[in-house]
Amino acid sequence: MAQMTMIQAITDALRTELRNDENVLVFGEDVGVNGGVFRATENLQKEFGEERVFDTPLAESGIGGLAVGLSLQGFRPVPEIQFFGFVYEVIDSISGQLARMRYRSGGRYNAPVTIRSPFGGGVHTPELHADSLEGLMAQQPGLKVVIPSTPYDAKGLLISAIRDNDPVIFLEHMKLYRSFRQEVPEEEYSIPLGKADVKREGTDLSIITYGAMVQESIKAAEELAKEGHSVEVVDLRTISPLDIETIIASVEKTGRAIVVQEAQKQAGIAANVVSEITERAILSLDAPVLRVAAPDTVYPFSQAEQVWLPNYKDIIETATKVLKF
C-alpha cells in the first residue's frame, strides 16, 4: 500500500477508471493542462490524451449539458464543477435532466454521470467557494450524493461512483485534500455506495456525521473517552440514499445520538437523519437527538469562518448535554 492524501487517492481513482473503460471522459474548467485547481487531474491529459481529459469553457451550464448528452451516447462522463458553490449554474442539467433520465425514458436510458466538486470551509476561500450545498442534492430524488472523509474511502467510493449507472454527486471537502495521509491500496478496489462506516466503536453515544466533521467528531470522541464516555462515530459516506440500517443499529446500541454537519442547521441533511431516528428508534432513545451545525446565516467572509464553523469543542458540548440528560 501507498501513503496517500485524499487528492492523490482521487487522482488514482480517476486514472484507474480511465484505464479500465475507454468511455470514461474527464472534463471541466482547467482540468486538462493545469491538472485542476487542486491538481486532482494532474498529468491525466498527458497520459490519456486531449479527447478523454479536456478543458471546457468557464460555463457550468455548458459542462452539465455536455454531460447529459454524452451519457445518452454511451459515455461515462466525469465532469468537475470547480467549486460546488457554482452548482446553481448547472442545477437544471442535474435536477431537471440527469436525475429524471431513467424515469423519463421508462428505463430506456441511464445517466452514468459522476459530478466531482470541492466544497467546504476552513481554508479561507473567497465568497461562494466554501458553501455546503449537499442538502440541495440530497433532496432531489434520482441522485446519489457521496462525501468521503478519508483517502481510502475517496478512492473506493469514486471508483464505485464512476461505475454506477445512475448520476452521482461526489463532493470533496477542500480541508481534507491534503490534511493527512492514509494507507491506500495501489490496485483497484471499490466501496459500495449507500453504505455507512463505523469509524469508531462505542456504547454510550452515537455521533452521526460526514465529510470533514468526521475528523472533528473522532477528536471529540477521543476527548470524551478521557472522561469515561464511550462514543461511537458513524461516517455516513453516502448521504443519499442514507444507510438507515447502520444508523438505527448504532442508536439502538447506545441509546443516545447527536448528528453533526458543517452546513447550516436549516441546511445539510442532519434534520432528515434526526427524523429517521425518531420515527424508527424512538423507544430506544434515552435522550433527545441533538444537532451540531453552523448558524443559519450565509457563509461568512474568511476572516470569520473559524468562529462560524462547528468544531470538536462544539461537538463535546452538545454530546455532554445528551450524555447528562
TrEMBL record:
Asked if Heme is a keyword of the record, the answer is: no
A molecular function GO annotation: oxidoreductase activity
Output the Gene3D superfamilies linked to this UniProt entry: 3.40.50.920, 3.40.50.970
Transketolase-like pyrimidine-binding domain sequence ranges: 4-179
Q: Which cofactor does it need?
A: thiamine diphosphate
UniProt keyword terms in alphabetical order: Oxidoreductase, Thiamine pyrophosphate
Q: Which InterPro entries match?
A: THDP-binding (IPR029061), Transketo_C/PFOR_II (IPR009014), Transketolase-like_Pyr-bd (IPR005475), Transketolase_C (IPR033248)
Name of the protein described by the UniProt record: 2-oxoisovalerate dehydrogenase subunit beta
